[in-house]
């Protein structure tokens, strides 16, 4: 129930945002495409404002209930003190959210100029950067929809274990969170790498975008790992530390952007390598802290072996099927993606890589599916 207000506000935000886009398209089209674009962009403002109003309404309602409950108990705890405690957690997390837009702003200022240094003219450099940031990076961020939720749920879970002084519980929850992150993000990264050109043609009709997608593909895994470990560190009370680590990663990204992107042999690939390196650095710094200050140790056999085997089977299935079907067509690409997903899922089931609690997180049918497959002996707990 704690996450309900946030979930409702996000749904409202997206509904209002999309509604604004449609209204802008309908009423402003007669004035020109640029006005439609401006109106659609304004959807971010209207959506955020609607979400803020929803949260304010919920907060006022919660405060009313809180005062009534405290009055009935004779408790005089100040709501101001609670707000201060929330702010101590919220401010660093919010600052961490600003680092990513800062990195994107740095990219926008630096990458086109360094591409020109590599020998590309202004229009080509701009086009390459647009493909990199507006098309490829968007796909790389898709798996993080799950890992962001996982990281958010990990904060209270780790805090609870810390309050109980239960190091074993901390390690167990960390192990499961990282295992799930690898299990979900590894096939996404590998699939984007193997089908980079096909996906670029399917979604954008521009095969050239596949270059950026293939180079950025590993970022899908390491960004997810950074987010999960950041949630664990915040749960331990070190809320500013993941921000610091991500900022160090941003510095690495700037340095590599400057040198690699200007190399004619690399070009836009250099920007991709810099992005991947920044997330690897941020993740490794998070991991180092967790291994130094908890009993957690990254166990490659436990965390990586089974997802790695399943991902290898997935890759072989995609490559074998790609020799048979026409992968340059949209239908062929969708078929390859479906085969990859099924091969990975079935391989995980066969080798015991999926546990009953993994299935429980599936909305709606999760608990029943977990119970049914456990009864059949297909999965274990």
Summarize the SSE layout with pairings:
Layout: H1 4-28, H2 33-41, H3 43-73, H4 79-117, H5 122-140, H6 144-163, H7 167-194, H8 196-204, H9 209-235, H10 241-260, H11 268-293, H12 300-322, H13 330-350, H14 356-359, H15 366-375
Helix pairs in contact: 1-2, 1-3, 4-5, 4-10, 5-9, 6-7, 6-9, 7-9, 7-12, 8-9, 9-11, 10-11, 12-13
The oligomeric state of the chains shown is: single chain
> Can you tell me the residue ranges where pLDDT is under 50 for at least 5 consecutive residues?
none
Helix vs. strand class: mainly alpha
N to C succession of SSEs: HHHHHHHHHHHHHHH
Radius of gyration: 23 Å
Characterize the biggest β-sheet: none
Mean pLDDT over the residues: 80
Textual characterization of the structure:
The protein is built from 15 helices and no strands. It has 381 residues and is mainly alpha-helical. The longest helix is centred in the first third of the chain and has 39 residues, at 79-117. The protein is globular and about 60 Å long. It starts with a helix and ends in a 6-residue tail after the last helix.
């Amino acid at each position: 129930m704690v996450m309900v207000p946030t979930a409702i506000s996000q749904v409202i935000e997206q509904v209002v945002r999309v509604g604004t886009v449609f209204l802008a398209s309908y009423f402003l089209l007669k004035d020109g495409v640029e006005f439609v674009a401006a109106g659609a962009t304004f959807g971010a403002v209207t959506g955020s404002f609607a979400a803020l109003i929803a949260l304010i309404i919920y907060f006022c309602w919660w405060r009313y209930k809180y005062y009534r409950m405290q009055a009935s108990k004779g408790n005089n705890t100040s709501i101001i003190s609670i707000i201060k405690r929330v702010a101590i957690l919220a401010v660093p997390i919010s600052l961490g959210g600003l680092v990513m837009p800062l990195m994107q702003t740095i990219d926008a200022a630096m990458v086109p100029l360094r591409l020109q240094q590599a020998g590309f003219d202004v229009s080509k450099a701009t086009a390459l950067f647009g493909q990199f940031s507006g098309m490829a990076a968007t796909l790389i961020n898709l798996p993080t929809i799950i890992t962001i939720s996982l990281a958010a749920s990990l904060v209270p879970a780790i805090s609870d274990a810390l309050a109980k002084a239960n190091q074993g519980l901390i390690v167990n929850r960390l192990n499961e969170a990282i295992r799930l992150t690898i299990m979900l993000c590894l096939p996404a990264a590998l699939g984007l790498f193997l089908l980079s050109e096909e996906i670029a043609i399917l979604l954008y009709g521009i095969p050239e975008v596949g270059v950026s997608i293939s180079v950025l593909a590993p970022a899908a895994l390491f960004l997810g790992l950074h987010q999960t470990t950041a949630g664990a560190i915040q749960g331990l009370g070190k809320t500013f530390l993941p921000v610091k680590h991500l900022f160090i990663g941003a510095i690495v990204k700037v340095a590599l952007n400057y040198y690699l992107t200007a190399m004619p042999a690399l070009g836009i690939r250099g920007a991709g390598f810099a992005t991947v390196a920044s997330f690897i650095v941020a993740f490794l710094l998070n991991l180092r802290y967790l291994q130094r200050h908890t009993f957690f140790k990254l166990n490659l056999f436990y965390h990586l072996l089974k997802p790695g085997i399943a991902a290898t089977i997935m890759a072989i299935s995609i490559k074998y099927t790609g020799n048979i079907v026409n992968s340059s067509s949209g239908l062929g690409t969708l078929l390859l993606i479906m085969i990859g997903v099924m091969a990975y899922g079935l391989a995980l089931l066969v080798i015991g890589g999926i546990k009953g609690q993994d299935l429980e997180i599936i909305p709606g049918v999760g608990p029943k599916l977990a119970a049914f497959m456990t009864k059949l002996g297909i999965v274990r707990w």
